[in-house]
Amino acid sequence: MIQVSELHKYFGKGTSSTVHVLNNINLTFPEKGLVTIFGHSGSGKTTLLNILGLMDTFDSGHINWYGRVFDKYQSKVFDEIRNRDIGYIFQNYHLIEEESVYDNVAYPLRLLGIKDRSVIDKQVMYALTAVGMDKYKKRNVTMLSGGQQQRVAIARAIAKDSKVIIADEPTGNLDSDNTFEVMNIIKKISKERLVILVSHEEDLVRFYSDRIIQIKDGSIISDKENQGTSLQHKDSRNFYLKDLHFSTSSNQEDIQVNFYTGEEGGKLEIDVVQKGDTYYIKPRDDRKVIVVDENSEVQFVSQSEDEFRKELEQSEHDFDLSEIKIEESYITKRNVFASLGKAIKDSFFKNKRFFKRSKLTPVVFIIASVVLAFLFPLLNNALFVNKSDYLDASAHTLKVVVNDREDGRSVYDRLKNRFKEDDNILAITPAQADSFSLTGRSFYNYRDTFTFRYYPVNNANYPYDIYLGRKSTKDDEVVLSRLTCEAILNYKGSKAAGIEKEEDILHKAIKINNQSFSIVGISTEDSSALMLSPFIYQSIRSALDPYAYAYNVIYIDAIDKEAVKKELRGAYRIVDPYVDGFFYQLELNFKGSAFLVVIISIMIIAIALYIILMVRSTMFKKIKEIGVLRTVGAKKSDIRNIFVGEMIALTTVFGASAYLGVLLFQIYFGIRYQFETIGLSLTLINPFIAIFGLLFLYIIAIVSALIPVSLLLRKTPIEIVKKYDI
User: Fold this and answer.
1) What would the mean pLDDT of 215-229 be, rounded to a whole number?
2) Distance of alpha carbon 635 from alpha carbon 79, whole angstroms
3) pLDDT tens-digit readout, 123-158
4) In a shared domain, residues 635 and 506
5) Pairing of strands 529-532, 477-481
6) The domain containing residue 16 runs over which residues?
7) Per-residue pLDDT for 684 more than 60?
8) Within a domain: residue 312?
9) In the chain, count of helices (H) and strands (E)?
10) Going by fewer Cβ within 10 Å, which terminus of the chain is more open, N or C?
11) Are the C-beta atoms of residues 189 and 130 closer than 8 Å to each other?
């Protein structure tokens, strides 16, 4: 049962032009019957019908839909109810013009989640047969007359076994013959289902309706049961042969002509030529020739008109909707009409594209993908931070970041003076880490030099533990950290140089400033610290300090880092590599890649804008189809999936293929190329960057496509229909 109570709706609420469209509507509808909402144009009848059909919002009141009570518009829930329980018949038919009669009637079944083709075929063919349109099932709906299209719309409404049929001016665009044919069908449906009809044709309303609700200026002024009135109509498309003058000609066994005419003394003067299975007819006078076949609306009725009417009246209750009952087992658990997988598959393999592509689209996708494929690998330094990048000092090191408005040398001197008597401080230096080299055999069997970063510390006062080997006791001995050893083991040339495990690193020779040292131990340090004798440490520091990069960072080595942080808090920006080093390094990387990030951002914005405009343009070209799908029960997710599936296919064919082609080009031509004229260096692609770039391409395309679609889907189904005059 459907019931509405204290229902109100306004147009332009809160403005000076507020219109109270529906004023305190209270109605209860029966389980079946033809209930007509009658009123003149502007009375609010169509607005009320749209709310009853769960296609429009209301401002206050309640709707009781078969036990489920709603006090506001609920898009997702109303979509589900429309999908399952409501069939729609519109004045403008709302058929999908690119589809056949059969597919238009099948749409609600597919929207419902029925996948069994035999079930769909049974439902569709019964519905089409019931309205006399089964012989047109393969015909495109644009080739049908208005009356035929409306009968297809009726078949679509009943095919899914709807509880309620909503009919909005279903005869508004039909001539008198088709009007009575359509109304006869609707009347038959109302014997088994509730049909809520809106019409302004008073004669039809009083003849067919079981109950008439009259509305004026948004208020109900009468609500009465209707007994029906007499209404005479003669269908001009039917020729009742028994009511015509008849004569026959059979002077030869192979010629049989039956001649019917409404004019006494009428003559038949024609020439007929038969060739194969075709007759060629030529009249001898200026009369027209109309061929009546199984596809014609004109019918030859072998009875008299009275006999035909009596038979029609006797068969008035033969519309058996139990034949198209939908069992719950027919419906899939995930009742998805356009799943993302199906949308992608249709776009790739069935050429079922929801929107047509312009010639410019492939070019834009290919150019954008090629540019991004060249630029994204260069973002490796900006997006990826290795532990060795931000742990580029010792475990006891803090970085004091010098403000751009200050002089680095002055800050350095102030810090030296501030902590000169502090036993907690191990060292204060503006120098950054340097590098040492390790020599061995390469992949190509010749001697090669591998270079690694390090941070020098004085092993005489620096606290550290040995993980492998021993501490250094001589000036030409050093102890590496575990992090540095890990970098050596991960280096592509280490295995060829005979270094496969940590033990292989011990006693290897390294060079620092052309001086050789022997590795005697590995510390537990998860940093870049290199433990040196006091003499070597002081000489390396003296060599590094003059070349410190503009003193933008001052390094403080301390036994207790927390004490230094507390001392300097508020005065300087302190970076602890172990606490916030990752984000600090990421910040530095982005600063160094700012120009590249700007270029890529511009590219992304340009691609996104193009896709948004392309999808928006296509969306408005297909707005009727979207509106139809929404009104007959398609969920918002169904519409989104259609567009996303098409965009994924489009991106794969033109974007991803071009992107991957460029990556293969870079990989094929080697590990490293120098484009010296423009100062560009291309490095072998980081697999994570490559995957990220490809995924990012899809994300840009999908998000950009969803923006205009999602904005459209914020509107209710009836708002889409009204705004775009579907």
Assistant:
1) 87
2) 6
3) 999 999 888 888 899 999 999 988 899 999 999 999
4) no
5) antiparallel
6) 2-225
7) no
8) no
9) 23, 29
10) N
11) no
